[in-house]
Structure formats: C-alpha cells, structure tokens
Amino acid sequence: MTVRFQDLFRSAAAAEPSPLCGGGRPADAGRERGSATPIQGAPLGMVATSPEAASPLPAPSGGHPPPQRAEGWARVAVLSVLLPLLVSPALAESASDRLPKQPLVVDSTAQGRQIGKPGGDIVTLVSKARDIRYISTYSYTRLVGYDETLALKADILEKFENDGDRIYTFTLREGHRWSDGQPFTAEDIRYWWEDVALNKELSPSGPPEFMMVDGQPPRFEVIDPLHVRFTWDKPNPRFLPELASPRDPFIYRPAHYLKRFHARYTPKAEIEPLVKQAKVKGWAALHNRLDAMFEQTNPDLPTLQPWRVTNTAPAARFVFVRNPYYHRVDSNGQQLPYIDKVNMDVSAGGLLAAKANAGEADLLFRGLNMEDIPILREGERAKGYRTHLWPTARGSELALYPNLTVTDPVWRNLNRDLRYRRALSLAIDRRTLNNALLFGLGTEGNDTVVEKSPLYKPEYRTLYAGYDPAQASRLLDEIGLTQRNGAGIRLLPDGRELEIVVETDGESSMLTDGLTLISEFWREVGVKLFVKPQDRTVLRNRAYSGASVMVAAQGLDLAMPTAEMSPDELAPVHQDTYAWPKWGQYVETRGKEGEPCDIPEAKALIDLNARWMATADNAEQAAIWGEMLKNRAENQWVIGTVSGALQPVVAKTRLRNVPDTQTYSWKPTALIGIYRMDQFFWGPNPKEASR
Amino acid sequence: MIRYLARRFITMAVTLLIISAVVFVIIKLPPGDFLTNQIAELRSQGEAASVAKAQFLMQQYGLDRPVWEQYLRWVGLWPNPEGAFNGLIQGNWGWSFEYDRPVREVVGDALWLTLVVNLAVVIFVHLVSIPIAIYSATRQYSIGDYVATFIGYIGLATPSFLLALVMLFYANRWFEVSIGGLYDSAYSGLPWTWEKVRSLLAHLVVPTLVIGLGGTAAMIRRMRANLLDELGKQYVVTARAKGLPPTRALLKYPFRMSLNPFIADIGNLLPHLVSGSVLVSLVLSLPTVGPILLAALKSQDQFLAGFILMFVAMLTVIGMLISDLLLAWLDPRIRLGGDGR
C-alpha cells in the first residue's frame, strides 16, 4: 500500500475553515480610530515580570493583592460593603491620605444620581483580548473631559486656563498620586513632551498632529511642580477637545517608572539585558512596549484611571482592580470608584448577546446591536438585568460614499457630477429603509449632525433627501445618461452598463440589507447596484488606492458636536473618509502622496476647516460649522439614509446609577464614558448574590 | 522493513515540502500582508511609534522580500538578515503579528484544549456507534435497526452550528452551564482545581454531542455495512455450526475483520483531532485552534496560519504511516511496499 494522496489533500482541505463561519460581529470597532492596531498591543509578560522590571519604587502600600479565587472575591465583595478597608492593603492608609489635597468632588445628587456604597465586582465582556483597551474609554478619566452637558471641565487637573486658545496653563492637584503611590507632578507631563513626543527614537515622526499648528510645536514650560504651560503662536483650538476625546492621547506618562527604560536616564548596560529578554530591537522598542497607557498590556505601568489592569494576555478574563489613589470623591467624601473590580471576559463576538441573555454580564454595551434587542429582552426577568435603549448619535447608519478620487475616468467624472449625487440621493426611499432597518424608529435624511447637537438645523438633514424618483430620473437624463439597455439600465458614456459596485466591509447585516433595498430603489431610475462585501482591510486599501467606485459604511462619527469640537471629519483632510481618500492623503502627507483637492466646493471645506483651527472665538466656530454642514447637505458628498439606531445597554437591575436613556456615541460621549462609570454601584438586594 | 520506512520518510518529507509551498502561496495570494495593511492604517492615524515598530517587524521577517524568499526563510532554507537559518525545520514556528507573540505561545495554549475536545468526541463517537452498529447489523431490518438508522440520519442532517446554539441555550437554562468557552470564565487564569475540571467537563458535553452527532451516524453506517459483509461469510457460518457461543462468534472474527477500514482511517483521524471542530468551535467560542486559524487567515497573519495548516498536514502524513504499519501488523494478508516481496 502507498500513501493515498487524494486522502491527504482531502484532509488538508478539511483544515481550511468553511466560509460559512463568519467571524466577528458588527462591532463599532471599525469606525473607531485606531481600533485595529494590534501591533501596539504588546503583551509583555516577560519583561514585566522580571525582577529588575518590577515596579522600581516599591509602593508604600506593599503592592496590590494577587488575583484571588472567584468565590474569594465574592466574599471580599460582601465584606467590603462593611469594611472597605479590607479590599486592598493599599487601602490600609486612610482615604484622606490617598487623596489629593483638593479631590474632585462629584455632586451626584445634582446629576440626578444617588450616592452609592463602595464594593463589589462587575463583569463585562469583550470580543477580543485587544479590546480591553477600551476600559480607558469606558472609565473616562482625562486631564480635561466633557461632562454630561458636553462642557469641558478639569478632571485630573485642578484647573486650567485657556488664553485665546493659544496659551494653556494647567494646574495639577497637590498630593495627587499614581496608582503605585508615587506623586503625579509636572515632571510627568514634561517627560511625555520632552522625552517621549520630542524624542526622535520614540516618536520618529515627531509629536502627535494635534500638538502642531502649521507644523510648529508649542513652547512648553514647567512653572513649578504643579503648573505647566503650553504656548502656541497661533490658536490651537483642537488641543483641549483632543485631550477629552474617547481615545486619550495621554499627554502625561509615569516618569518615575518609564525613566528606567529611557536611554537618557538609565545607562545602556542596565537596559540592555531587559531589551534582550523582551526580544526587541532596542531601548526605544522596549520603552514603547512598556508604555502601554492605552493598550492596558503592562500591569506594572502606574495609572491615574479608576481601575488598573492586573494580568496580561493570554487570558480569558482580564481583571482590573481599583486605583487606591483615584482623585474623585462623592459628596459624602467616599472615594470613587464604587466598584472594586472590573472583570473583562473574552468571548466570541457572536455569543455576546447570548451571554447577556444568560445573565453572564453585569454591564454590556459594546458589541451589542439593535437586532439583539429581542433576545436581550427575553432574559431580563429571569436573570435580573435591564436592557436600556440609548439612541446612537451617528450621522447615518448607512451612508454611501461616491469616491471622488476613483481612478476610472468615466466613474470619476460621474461621481464628481453634483446632479448625479443628488439624483442618487433623491432615488432612495428612506421611509422604507427606516421601517425595514430600524423598526421605523430612526430619522430619515442626510448624513449630518443629530438634533441634540446645538449646531443642528433641519435643512441639514432634509436637503435633497426626499424621495422623488421622477426628479432623480430627470437629473440623470440631464447628465446625458439617456441610453438604456434591454433591461432598462442606463449606459455610461463609454457604453458600459451603469452598474455601481458598492463595496462594504460585510460585517454588519444592516449595511447589506439596506443596500439590497437601495438596489431596488435605484433600479427604478435605471441604475444598477451590486453589493460587494469584503474584509475591512481589503476595502480600505481599495478605497485608498482609488479602486472602489462607491463604498457603503456608517456615517459621521462626531454627530453630536459643539462648536469647540473640530469639524475636520467634514473636510477632505483625512484619507479614511471614503468620499475622498486621495485628497485626504495629500493633506495628511503634506503633498507627498495622493492628489490635491480640485473641486471648488470641497476646497471651501478645507479652507473652512483651516479657519476653524485659526480662531478662538466660539461664535465664529459655530458659524463655520454651520457653513460646512450646509455645504455637506447641498453637495451630497456623502449620501446619508437613516440614523438613530438604538444601542442596547445591558445592566443588572441592582447596578445603580446607570442612566436610563442617554445618547450613545464614540465621539464625544466616549461610549458610556461621560456618564461616569465610576459612580455605578451595587444596590442592596440580599436575594441576588454578587457575582 | 527499514528500506520501506526510509522510503516512506523521504516521500513524507517531499510531500510536506510541496504542501508547505502550496499553503504559503495560497496564504500570500490576497494582495498585501498583515503589516502593510497595518502600516497604511497606522500612518493614516499618525501613530508614528507604531509604524516604526511595524517597519522593524517587516524587515525582521522579510515581508519586504519577494515571496519565494519569504517562503524559504519560513521553512528554514534561507538565511534571515542575521545570516542564520531559523525556520520550521530548525523548530522556529515563526511570529504571530496579530497577537504580537511567537506562534508557539499563541498555539500552545489552544492546542491541548483542542486535543481534549476532539479526543472526547472520538471516544464518544466510538462508544456510541460501535454497539449500535453491531446491534443493527446482527438484527438487520428489525425495528431497532430502523430506529437507529433514522436517528443517525437526523444527526447527520442537522447543521451542527445551529444545533450548537440551541443546545448552548438550553444547557444554560436547564443546567446553569455558562455560555461558551471551555470553563466558566471565573476560573480563567487559576490553577487546575477539582472545581475547574468539573466546570471543564460540564462545558465539554455540548461540543462533544454536537461535533460527535454527525460523526456517529456515518460511523454506524460504515460499521454496519462492514459487519454485514463479514457476517455472511463462510467462516462465520462454520464457527456457528461448530457451536461457538454467538457473542464469541461475532466478536472474535467478523468484528475484528470489520475494524480494518477504521485502522486505515487513522490517517484521517489524527488531523481531525485538530481541525475537526472549527465551525462548532467558532459558534461555541471554544478556545481551540480552529477560531485562531480562521482569524489568522482573515487578517493575513501568514506565519500563524501557515504553521497551523502545516501542523495538520504533518499529522495527516504521520497518521497515514501509522495506519499502514498497523494494518500490516493486524492483517498479515496486507503487504508493505508492493514491490513483489
């Protein structure tokens, strides 16, 4: 007998996964900037656990408790209601010793919240281990952050002064400490600016873009250990909103910890063995890896957030314990957060709703969708949770992006024809879409800001967004697309069929369902639509290179702006807007790649964006926003359809202070961030044991 | 025998080499690779530090080199930038970009859990189907035979992923088994205690049933057919005529003979231990190799995907060898080599 080759190949083929098993579910991850950046997610057990790398200065508290058994924690959780001091050895110091001299006092009752009781754990779910990074979005602790009314308030800072958007003076809280007990001072901000952002090896392309005005960095001064100042020659209105953004740029770093890995402060001979151990190329790579403020992959890295991570990947559960030196207190003087421990369990995206239904999550929102609502409602009573339905602030749930920088000349001409874009918009029956996709609960119209935004005007949403197929047909005829083939489809000037291939990332059934409906509407005016779902990275590359004619995706991320938030998403300055990838590249690479914007109306947007950046006057900024939104509606750069999907927010009934209805968005609300998760607490109910 | 083995090993090596080339080329077929995609994205977000790291990795792993050179480096037939041969042959499984860790660490955890799940399935399938097959073969066309056949076909026809979801739901409702995973997440990262093992066993029930059900039906049918072939043969009649007890007359000769095809099947069984449950693993969120492989293929994490596929191929090749040797040992009528000895 000999080896049977056909068998061999059969089993090799069997090892390939079936295309049926679609992996992830439509998480909002895709639209969030930087969500797909696993490269930075550098789990680093090796270095972190080596004796040399262990916290350089022993915490006065004697360190944090090792992870205990689950039942153990449940017991601790019960005890801690009575004896909060038992939770962590660090808490053996009295609370007032651990707080800054001037803690941030949260007036819960004024916000319509209750004063809570500390203690207990909560379990939430993530679909990928990498997603634990969003804890800093959920817990939303910033130097400067938005409150619930979207006003910018000092948070970690005691106060800040803003002189004409040019000179920013920050005052730190006296006695504020990192989670390892070391003082948080101006040195930590200086370290970030001078030794991280300006260091050529750590940041090869210079400081982050929001720090630069016309390519010029600010002057930075440390006035005293509690005061720092950034000074630009021209206004930089983006600075504070960026600090308050859902993805914290972390313009402060724990200098006392990171200096050990910085070549400027530590001799090479001391770093070298650590570099070897971590198998990285040099000190810079090692530093970048340990400096995982956002990624949460280094448990030794001190933090100012309410909870700090305690374990690294690989793990099915990531445990975040409270930061004993957190700077917020409630009006009774109890230190926040109320919750001692946040457990993030990793589970397949497809099972999130099922797990919530089984009561396995105390708090869950990211990864849930409108289509999960029935199954979520079904388990409410039995498992003691509630499904809050929060309206999403997003420009449009399904938006079509005609690629104005597509390489095919015929399509390029067509996509750039205003009449064509208006015709496509007028040919969409948004009422039917609304009924089919959002149970009729959505808002029909353009991809623009939502009603809750102070900048909203009805015309932004309704202009050229009615349903008028006759007018659409007339416009298409006017362009000269009068020839039709036997099937009634119009022909392009070069004789091809007017078949628009709409590319989408295929991860959300809402997009593909919506497109199927739109293809019916468009057929009535003689336009054929072909849906092409594909992997998101492939989609991006095709769009960026000008290969795709039209892309379908979600609309504006920042749909609930105030005038002081940057309107850059409306202008062709970023390549990740599918309507103008190449114009965006041109601006982003300062003319090295892409092509310059050559449509006057779009150029106007760039100018407006630049004017917004150059002014410190809120009224003028609001006027600029208005002009840009008007321009967007008139020109139909992006064809919006329906907005206002509901976001299910699952929370245990006993978990208090979870708002009933609030607006959900990535930007500016940082998912649930601005609703202050550190004030959530377990209400009394002896019948249901804490998990 | 030694000559035969030597020849087999050479063919195996050549086969694996061909498979590795095919695997690598297919993985590389889609445009771009993990790091170029990443770099494009990072650049658009102005995350300079990460771009630098991605570029460093690109050089380190030669992603900027032509495909054939990448392939040879991966296999270990071409020196890396430091001038050392360091590939599969030398025991280096490569680097996973997605997880930012060596492939060995990524796969290591998942591999043995995969084996546990699939071993449970294999045992379940054999334990259930062999007695049923014997029963329905000895009582052909009886009511019991029809019932067993009917149930078996239902098992074969039910889509396993659907069944998995349904059973997951009711296992949670009725038996309080937490959804998904191989043990309750409360135990993750803790040492193996009795409670954790119990949690693992409770979570094994659904996957074993779901994955096993399809296999059981097929197994019953094959076993039944094999046994029926044997039962009508003269030596069985003779054994019975000479007064051998019925059980002995059944188990001693015809049953043994009907096992031959299963021994020959070991070659397929071994890779099945790793790749047999991809779909169900995905649905049930099991921490096994299947979902890792799928994710790796989707994100073009080439070394991770390549390694898993190569591992399965190697198990196939080894399984084939084992089954051939076992067959020759079990049934003297089968000769090795076929060179007319």
Strand order of the largest sheet of chain B: 1-2
Q: What is the average per-residue confidence, as pLDDT of chain B, rounded to a whole number?
A: 81
Largest interface: A-B, 72 and 89 residues
Distance between the termini of chain B: 11 Å
What does the main sheet of chain B amount to? Answer: 2 strands, antiparallel
The oligomeric state of the chains shown is heterodimer
Q: What name is given to the CATH topology of the largest domain in chain B?
A: MetI-like fold
Radius of gyration of chain A: 27 Å
What's the domain count of chain B? 2
- Report the radius of gyration of chain B as a whole number of Å: 25 Å
Count of alpha and pi helical runs of chain B: 15
> pLDDT average of chain A, as an integer?
83
The portion of residues assigned to helices of chain A is 25-40%
What CATH architecture of the largest domain in chain B would you give?
Answer: Orthogonal Bundle
Domain ABC transmembrane type-1 (chain B): 111-327
Keywords (chain B): Cell membrane, Membrane, Transmembrane, Transmembrane helix, Transport
GO cellular component, one term (chain B): plasma membrane
Family (chain B): Belongs to the binding-protein-dependent transport system permease family.
Features:
heterodimer, A: 691 residues, alpha+beta, Dipeptide-binding Protein, domain 1, Dipeptide-binding Protein, domain 3, five-stranded mixed beta sheet, four-stranded mixed beta sheet, 23 helices, 29% helix, 14% strand, globular, disordered N terminus, B: 341 residues, mainly alpha, MetI-like fold, 2 domains, 15 helices, cell membrane (chain B)
How would you describe this protein?
Chain B: Keywords: Cell membrane, Membrane, Transmembrane, Transmembrane helix, Transport. Chain B: Belongs to the binding-protein-dependent transport system permease family. Chain B: This is ABC transporter permease. Chain B: It is a multi-pass membrane protein. The complex is a heterodimer of chains A (691) and B (341). In chain A, β7 (219-224) and β8 form a beta hairpin. The radius of gyration of chain A is 27 Å and the shape is globular. In chain A, 29% of the residues lie in helices and 14% in strands. Chain A has a five-stranded mixed β-sheet with strand order 18-17-19-15-20, sandwiched between helices. In chain A, strands 2-12-10-9 form a four-stranded mixed β-sheet. Chain A is built from 23 helices and 24 strands. The longest helix of chain A is centred in the last third of the chain and has 18 residues, at 618-635. With 341 residues, chain B is an all-alpha fold. The model of chain B has no long low-confidence stretch (mean pLDDT 81). The interface between A and B is large, with 72 and 89 residues.
